[in-house]
Amino acid sequence: MTAFQEETATDEEIAAEAALYTPFTDAVRALVDVTIRTEVDPDEIRAAQVEIEAIVERLRKKQIPGSYGVRFRRDGTRGRNWGNTVMGLRNPIAPPLHIVNDGQGQAWSDFHLGAPYEGPPGLVHGGVVALVLDQVLGHAVSTSGRPGMTGTLTITYRQGTPLGDLRCEAWVDRREGIKTWGKGRILNAEGELTAEAEGIFILPRWARDLDALRAAAEATEAG
Amino acid sequence: MTAFQEETATDEEIAAEAALYTPFTDAVRALVDVTIRTEVDPDEIRAAQVEIEAIVERLRKKQIPGSYGVRFRRDGTRGRNWGNTVMGLRNPIAPPLHIVNDGQGQAWSDFHLGAPYEGPPGLVHGGVVALVLDQVLGHAVSTSGRPGMTGTLTITYRQGTPLGDLRCEAWVDRREGIKTWGKGRILNAEGELTAEAEGIFILPRWARDLDALRAAAEATEAG
């Protein structure tokens, strides 16, 4: 299992990597899309397969043993989650979502979902709706200054979510002890509500210990 | 928007298509995985990108205008959902899941999730857990003889779900009017529970009309 890793790259190195891998991953995203949609002759499919297998073999010559993980800086600032299914710059499965937040518990993202995200004909897969809401709710909660692991997530489907341009909004609803309630919704291109979510996020044990240490330190200072 | 389409291919044609597209899509799945994990030199990444872009251009010469949709047979038997995000034979995003069912409301799947499905380091993305559960619950409900659209879906996360070999099980819990309750769970390679789900599936209006028509026909026959 890949553990949390320390980020060893400088800002310049990370920027150079992003410039290299962004267009590369976009090319693979386009290939994913056309793999579903192409109608060229069987011989052309077989020829493309042989070429893709050869590219895979070359790229596998040097690779990370497991998954990408998340690379954190020693100063505690949020690290790189470039392998993430929803946001990962290097993950062709990720649309990817670019999530904006106000640091006060609100987060939102405008994004586009095409053919690879289909469930019912012409509609976004209900599970993909849940996947996006989980990520944006988690982002709202974690950037509000209080990290949380998803405890429960409830999705209410109001109507089909059409493939195309979409928006997801999420916010921190309330807090109680180690629990934070996040809420969110998906809007279609006309701004109509298609799905809603409520999630309960639990403060991880390591953060609780940190909280206890801080409280003890403050009590000592006050004393 | 892609509508439901009629299946025009014969069984033999579908088998030939499956034999063509299965290894092709598997090659693209391997490329998705290595796109995240490769550490070869930048020049090799750039060369691969140029080749992939050329393949995409060739495959795009003839393609379906929108998404794949679902192709149904005129006799009403379930059609091909080869573009589906979770099960699609032609969708490189799909692991794909092969779901087994007993036709009585139970469904299950043994599957493997690698690097592209990562959320927290080494763990399956919480939203991917929801995506898999949504598909398997929906499958259990629809193959029980009563189709349903997901109304609500609640996921309870018990512990992190490790990347690797996993199992998902789902079953119909109960029915009441137009609602069917499905339940399900994810087990890790040691058989330990990692997440549970409950979903409420609503009988679509067209199926209700069908039910009403059948009841009327039966009443007429009985009379």
Automatic annotation (TrEMBL), chains A, B:
Q: Which InterPro entries match?
A: HotDog_dom_sf, PTE-AB_protein, Thioestr_dom
CDD domains referenced in this protein's UniProt entry, alphabetically: PaaI_thioesterase
Residue intervals of the Thioesterase domain: 122-177
Q: What is this protein called?
A: PaaI family thioesterase
Give the originating organism: Nocardioides humilatus
